[in-house]
Structure formats: structure tokens, C-alpha cells
Amino acid sequence: MNKILEARFLAPDIKLFRIEAPLIAQKRKAGQFVIVRVHEYGERIPLTIADSNAEEGSITIIVQGIGKTTKLLNTLEAGNHILDVVGPLGKASEIENFGTAVSIGGGVGTAIAYPTAKALKEAGNHVISIIGGRTKELVILEDEMLKVCDEVYPTTDDGSYGFHGLVTDKLKELISEGRKIDFVLAIGPIPMMAAVAEVTRPYGIKTVVSLNPIMVDGTGMCGGCRAVVNGKTMFVCVDGPEFDAHQVDFSILAKRNKMYLPQEKHSLEKFMCNLDKMAMEVENARVNA
């Protein structure tokens, strides 16, 4: 079991966890992930390692509560334990001195982009970060990005903070200004990553995305994380998670990620119903105490 050392919300439904995991902390590299299981009967979910502290023996993960398991995880607090944290898994990010590198994070994707942006800066790149959210409160890790990047541009869909528009709009602006961009990393929702790939494709800018398919064991045995890259079937958990964005078939990836939507919806509704009942029982106990 892995003890939670710190737990705090960064934004609505987005929570940071610092977890005891000394062996993982010693070996993890930017771009790698862990497979987490909250309890004995829980599903396994992949979560990118946002940061680590080898001396403390801890890793940091950032979780957006969307489905049953991520919402369950986000109910935990410091002092609680997670049953399984397995890793580091996947291949590390390709890090070299490209020149000018742009790190793009959409929503919670910023947490995945952060460690690679940090590594790119340490490799000598001029690092530009574009971090997006639908609204101001959903733009996360701006302060952390400011510490490791040369330029940081927050964007919001509704214009409530920073640049008014999508992350792709800001990227287009930088390119149209004549900025020489040698490398782009884009992490976030599938439509966003696909859009970034189409922005950079005409310019031949090397572009990498971190894929987020359905994943079970993280070792390539189950085959659930299949993705089509350059016309070939790849297993994201062992061949990735990062791939050349211009070679990824995003349409197939999106279809596969929707395979279990009815089951996921039913599971979430049942969990939220039980959570409401528990909250009512706690409140009744408080009133009657």
C-alpha cells in the first residue's frame, strides 16, 4: 500500500496527490506513468507521473475526477492509502536540445506536459509553454511552468484569463509571428492533440503527443491500449505513450476510447448515488449527535 502524503485540489475536480513510492521515485523519467488501483476490487487506471522527489521517496500525480475511479480517488486525503501504485511504466520522453520547444497542455494535460517541459529546459531548449482551460479556474500549474519555462501563455476558451481562444490559436499566432519552432509537445483531449498536429503539419515541425487510450495492465498483455500509428498497431503502454503526432490515427483512437461509455456512465451514476447516500447519513448523524 502507498500512503498519501499530500492531497489538495488545484481546480474543481482536479486534485494533486503526493504519494509514498520510493522505488518509482528513484527510477522514473519524464513522460512515464503509473497504474493505480484504489482498492482490492477497483479497476486499474493509468496516471502520468507529474513529478518526483527521490530523497523523500515520493511521486506526484494529478487526477481529474471524470469517471467512477478518478472521482473515488479524489475523495481520498493525506494519511489515506492507495492499494497499488505500479511503475514507472512506458517509455520516457524523447529529450534533446531541439532549439525552441513548445509544450502545450490542455486542461489536466498540463500536468503531463510539465515534467517534459522541465526536462526540455534542462536539456538547453528555449521552452515556450501554452496551457489552456475552458475557464480561468481550470488553468493549472501556471506558477510551476513559469519556474521551468522561458515563456508561458495561459489561454481560456471563454476569455476569462490570458489569451482568449484555444491553445491551437495561440500556437498559430506564434507561428504567424515568424517564431522559429523546432519541436512541439501536445498533451490533452484527443481533439486538441489532433488539431495541434494539423497546425504543425504544413510547416514540418516535429510534433509529439502523449496518448491516453483505455489501459488495463500497462504491460502490453491485454491489448486494450491499441492505437494505429503510421498504419501499424502499437501498444501505447509499452511502445509509448508518446508518438509522432503526424502519424497517429486520432479517429480510431477516439472511437476506441468511446467503446465502454454506457458502462462507464452506469458505474459513475451508481457511485455518485451511493456517495450522496453516505453524505446524507453523515449529515443526519451530525444533526442528531
Characterize the structure shown.
- With 289 residues, the chain is α/β, with parallel strands linked by helices.
- It folds into two domains: 2-89, Beta Barrel (Elongation Factor Tu (Ef-tu), domain 3), CATH 2.40.30.10; 100-257, Nucleotide-binding domain of ferredoxin-NADP reductase (FNR) module (Rossmann fold, 3-Layer(aba) Sandwich), CATH 3.40.50.
- Helices cover 33% and strands 30% of the residues.
- It is built from nine helices and 17 strands.
- It has helices spanning 22-27, 68-73, 109-122, 142-148, 167-176, 190-200, 236-239, 250-257, 261-288, and strands at 2-11, 14-20, 33-37, 45-48, 51-53, 58-64, 81-82, 84-89, 100-106, 126-133, 151-156, 163-164, 183-187, 206-210, 226-229, 232-235, 242-244.
- The strands form four sheets. The chain has a seven-stranded mixed beta sheet with strand order 12-11-10-9-13-14-17, with helices on both faces. A five-stranded antiparallel beta sheet has the order 5-6-2-1-7.
- Helix 5 packs parallel to helix 6 (190-200).
- The longest helix has 28 residues, at 261-288.
- It is globular and about 55 Å long.
- The two termini are 34 Å apart.
Number of domains: 2
CATH topology heading of the largest domain: Rossmann fold
What structural class should be given to the helix and strand makeup? alpha/beta
Query: End-to-end span in angstroms?
Result: 34 Å
Find the CATH superfamily of the largest domain.
Nucleotide-binding domain of ferredoxin-NADP reductase (FNR) module
- The CATH architecture of the largest domain can be given as 3-Layer(aba) Sandwich
In which order are the strands of the major sheet placed? 12-11-10-9-13-14-17
Morphology: globular
Largest sheet: 7 strands, mixed
Mean pLDDT: 88
Question: Rg to the nearest angstrom?
Answer: 19 Å
Give the ordered list of helices and strands: EEHEEEEHEEEHEHEEHEHEEEHEHH
Strand content: 25-35%
CATH class of the largest domain: Alpha Beta
Number of helices: 9
| Low-confidence sequence ranges | none
Overall number of strands: 17
Helix content: 25-40%
